Amino acid sequence: MIFEIIKSEGISHNSYFLGSGSEAAVVDPRRDVEVYLELAEMHGVSIRYIFETHRNEDYTIGSAELARHVDAEILHGSALDFRYGTPVKEGDTFSLGSLELEVLETPGHTYESISIAVRDTSISDECLMVFVGDVLFAGETGRVDFFGPEKIPETAGLLYDSIHEKILPLGDHVVVCPAHGAGSVCGAEIRDMDTTTAGYERLTNPYLQMGRDEFIEYKKSERLYTPPYFRRMEENNLRGVKVNKSHLEALPLQDFRELMGEGAQVVDVRNPTSFCGGHIPGSLNIWQDGFAAFAGYFLNYEDPILLVDDGRGVDSVRRSLIRLGYDNMAGYLAGGFPPWYMAGLEIQKLDAISVHELREMEGDFFLLDVRKITDRDRFHIEGSEHVWVGDLPDNIDLIPEKDVVIYCDSGYKSTIAASILESHGFRVSTVLGGIGAWLRAGYPVVGDF
């Protein structure tokens, strides 16, 4: 048996490559599909099936793009009218060599969610593993809020039943393969584990210890963020989209400036300290390793996207743009930021302060906490106000016209927020090291950390 986990960092997405004999299946492929083609070639197998566990919200699925390269059938749940592929229902089975793949209808996270139970019939009729999509995670369960708060009692009940009537009865030994790992916005506290087992979750997952009514009540009170780009992903994944642009051009300064003049979105993907030292006026800072997690909060799908880097290359950003459905990526400034200032063009600097400077600050200033609300509820710096960084563009009017000092966990998200407020004319400072450095310096907080 061939079994490979393909991780997409940033969005913490897991897809899977499963094979036996001369055939293989891919579960929940990402849009940059080269990895699946390479695996098929490496193992000498043909991709026969492409399974989608549900209409994904946090990335554009790569089924249509993968099907351009291989002769495979796209399969997904029948409770949603997809514009492509083939609907499947409870009990449908598919063969890959000695493997039998059985469809389980497991609604809750979405109505059309399915899981795929796998048996190796050359060994046993017992289930070996199950691909669960966003139904169950290591230490967590899928979110159920996408259809509005009025639907949560229904969707939470469906999710509870799917877990307890479909997944757990497969047996404690069964390997559970979720679509996301730690850090995904599709669950609040997913453990940092690639896979888990039904038995381990039954014993250790706190949400599986709840009765049905308690579980529903908990889900009604759950607080999760929904990035605005999710709606675009749902649209893409309903109709199926191929990759329209797979490369990023290195643009000379003149071409870069011309696109800026036409209203392009400029994103500086350097780290906060580099951005603070000097940057193109009006640019948004999202550090490269955080790009996949945060770009969807701030970038639109119409205006061209231009990147500024530190010369290390932007391939990881390019891949993130493809996965998030941004076919409007236009290119990056050849040579990074230096060609801009070497040409004598205007630059801006952002004030970066230490936690010691923050501790000693006096006068009238606005201290802004841009962490997740669940983190703030645990502890925060006294006197601070809160707006989650992803909500900031829609809440600019909440920020007073005075000096603004911003902190987050470590200084990365606060610099995103600072670049946004700076572009709106605010006088801003970002706190390097964030509340983590504040605590390590021994300074007090409100709450229990």
Automatic annotation (TrEMBL):
Keywords: Hydrolase, Metal-binding. Pfam families: Lactamase_B (PF00753), Rhodanese (PF00581). GO terms for biological process: glutathione metabolic process; hydrogen sulfide metabolic process. CDD domains: POD-like_MBL-fold, RHOD. GO terms for molecular function: hydrolase activity; metal ion binding; sulfur dioxygenase activity. InterPro entries: Metallo-B-lactamas, Mito_Persulfide_Diox, POD-like_MBL-fold, Rhodanese-like_dom, Rhodanese-like_dom_sf, RibonucZ/Hydroxyglut_hydro. The keyword Metal-binding applies. Residues 260-349, 361-447 form the Rhodanese domain. Coiled coil: none annotated. This is Glyoxylase-like metal-dependent hydrolase (Beta-lactamase superfamily II).
